[in-house]
């Protein structure tokens, strides 16, 4: 019997996993979004979401996610580029990735100690003769820590795209008299855009729903959609409103995934140089 006839059987475990751990949770979230805190069916949750409070919350979430993604890309792209030019690039890449293996909570508490009033940063500031500064519980500390955490996830896809770049394209651009900036703008950037899109996708989407860092690093000064969901489920016990916010968060994620999707032709990623 042809082996291809057994292929659908190979998909059964995968489909079961998707059904129970992806589709079922989304269906449950959508279902609970139609109930209020008393368990009665209502459309109020969706009406309330479009009021000023949640609209401002959504805008703030997108703004912080944009800042985190922007600064992460700003640091990750040149870092990935210089790593591809080093002799032991795989070793350097490993050193970049290793911090991502450390538990997120441990890294967050480490930054609390570093940025605290009695931490090494304030100790250095006081040694210079200045007063202690409240670095924690600010927008800066939140964005800084989030960028640090997400940098490895941005570097990896960009590194892969740069590492697979055909050097003959760069030689051709140089032979044609293109400057370094022109070569980057017309050759390197378009050919590595898929890697950038992948990096933006894996950074922007999680940044949109951050909640633990917002609590520990930013205190209550930064409220995102993730923080609102946590508060609705764990504090106010309003599962309906929490589910409604989660529904819109899922919709936003699908839109972002669509916008950052990479084009493929013939089953392979295709880059077009303009």
UniProtKB/TrEMBL annotation:
GO biological process: transmembrane transport
Alphabetical UniProt keywords: Cell membrane, Membrane, Transmembrane, Transmembrane helix, Transport
Transmembrane intervals: 12-34, 54-79, 91-115, 135-159, 199-218, 238-259
All residue ranges annotated as the ABC transmembrane type-1 domain in the record: 58-260
Gene Ontology, cellular component aspect: plasma membrane
Bilayer disposition of the protein: Multi-pass membrane protein
PROSITE patterns: ABC_TM1
Protein's UniProt keywords contain Glycoprotein: no
InterPro entries (alphabetical): MetI-like (IPR000515), MetI-like_sf (IPR035906)
Subcellular location: Cell membrane
Record family assignment: Belongs to the binding-protein-dependent transport system permease family. CysTW subfamily.
Protein name according to UniProt: ABC transporter permease
Organism: Savagea serpentis
């Amino acid at each position: 019997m042809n082996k291809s006839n057994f292929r659908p059987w190979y998909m059964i475990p995968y489909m079961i996993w998707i059904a129970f751990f992806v589709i079922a949770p989304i269906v449950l979230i959508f279902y609970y979004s139609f109930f209020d805190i008393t368990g009665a069916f209502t459309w109020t949750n969706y009406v309330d979401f479009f009021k000023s409070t949640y609209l401002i919350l959504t805008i703030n979430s997108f703004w912080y996610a944009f800042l985190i993604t922007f600064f992460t890309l700003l640091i990750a792209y040149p870092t990935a580029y210089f790593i591809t030019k080093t002799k032991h690039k795989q070793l350097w890449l490993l050193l970049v990735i290793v911090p991502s293996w450390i538990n997120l909570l441990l890294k967050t508490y480490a930054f609390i100690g570093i940025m605290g009033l009695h931490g090494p940063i304030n100790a250095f500031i006081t040694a210079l003769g200045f007063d202690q500064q409240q670095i924690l519980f600010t927008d800066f500390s939140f964005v800084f820590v989030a960028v640090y955490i997400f940098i490895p996830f941005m570097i990896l896809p960009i590194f892969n795209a740069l590492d697979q770049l055909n050097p003959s394209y760069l030689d051709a651009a140089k032979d044609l008299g293109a400057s370094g900036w022109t070569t980057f703008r017309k050759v390197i950037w378009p050919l590595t855009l898929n890697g950038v899109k992948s990096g933006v996708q894996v950074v922007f989407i999680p940044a949109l729903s951050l909640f633990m860092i917002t609590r520990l690093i930013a205190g209550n000064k930064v409220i995102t959609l993730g923080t609102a969901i946590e508060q609705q489920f764990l504090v106010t016990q309003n599962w309906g409103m929490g589910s409604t916010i989660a529904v819109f968060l899922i919709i936003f994620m699908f839109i972002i995934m669509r916008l950052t999707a990479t084009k493929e032709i013939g089953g392979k990623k295709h880059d077009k140089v303009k």
